Amino acid sequence: MNSRPRIVLPPAYLGSVSYYVCLLNFPTEIEQFANYSRQTYFNRCRIASANGVMDLTIPVENPTQKTWVRDIRISNHGNWQMCHWRAIEAAYFSSPFFEFYQDDFRPFYTKKHTFLFDFNRELQKTVLNIIDLPYQITYTENYEKNLPEGVIDFREMMHPKKNNVTLQDYFKLKPYYQVFEQKHGFLSDLSIIDLLFNMGTEARLILKNNIK
Q1: CA–CA separation, 20 vs 88, rounded Å?
Q2: What are the distances in angstroms from CA 207 to CA 177, 200, 212?
Q3: Is residue 152 helix, strand or coil?
Q4: Which among 109, 113, 133, 157 has a CA at the least distance from the CA of 207?
Q5: Are 208 and 25 in contact (CB under 8 A)?
């Protein structure tokens, strides 16, 4: 692509590799005024466990159908943080770079957080710092159902249940080393932590090379 359009993304919990391809290669805006809907990557990420793909889901307090995503509160009942961190440890303990990066992520699973949007944003800042990308993301100022001409709407694309936009039109997601690849084959487009823990400092180059 000679001229890269602006992209609007949904907020995401430890977003996928394709999500970070967008952040690294396109001018990007993140939606904060969409109404919350269940079963999205806003409170879910996917990692590679010994048994295959594993979903990690953050519990949220019961919102109304018209609650903006930026106002969704995390439900801190139960031990979701401990469960998520134990799952991440079990999945990536033997990966080449887990020990190198674990201290960057562990605090997110010990400190209590109120708003999911803020939690995701701070995690995102941590990831961008690791891959040496300045935090230059902007956020929507209101909700627009139909975006201006020339702006690509990925708000519904990165969704576990939908595929309204074909990723392959924009990205060529290339395989990289994964700990359990011999057992499960390459598992594409998992959470960015899968790329970081397996490939370390090569992650930025891989993200750059995944753009058409």
Answers
A1: 19
A2: 14, 12, 11
A3: strand
A4: 133
A5: yes
Domain boundaries, the chain: 7-209
Contact in structure between 151 and 8 (CB atoms under 8 Å): yes
CA atoms within 13 A on the CB side of 192: 28
**Residues 159 and 6: beta-carbon distance below 8 Å:** no
Two tokens, residue 124: 């995102």
99 Cβ neighbours under 8 A, 6+ residues apart: none
> What amino acid occupies position 184?
H
For residue range 24-66, what is the model confidence (pLDDT) as tens digits?
Answer: 988 999 999 998 888 889 999 999 999 999 999 999 998 777 8
Residue with tokens 């993301």: 137
Tokens (6 digits) for 91: 């999945």
Angstrom distance (rounded) from CA 154 to CA 61: 26
* SS3 sequence of 65-104: CCCEHHHCEECCCCCHHHHHHHHHHHHHCCCCCHHHHHHH
pLDDT in tens, 110-152: 999 999 999 999 999 999 999 988 777 899 999 988 889 989 8
From CA 167, how far away is CA 73, in angstroms rounded? 30
Beta carbons of 181 and 197 less than 8 angstroms apart: no
Ramachandran angles phi, psi of 53, nearest 5°: -65, 135
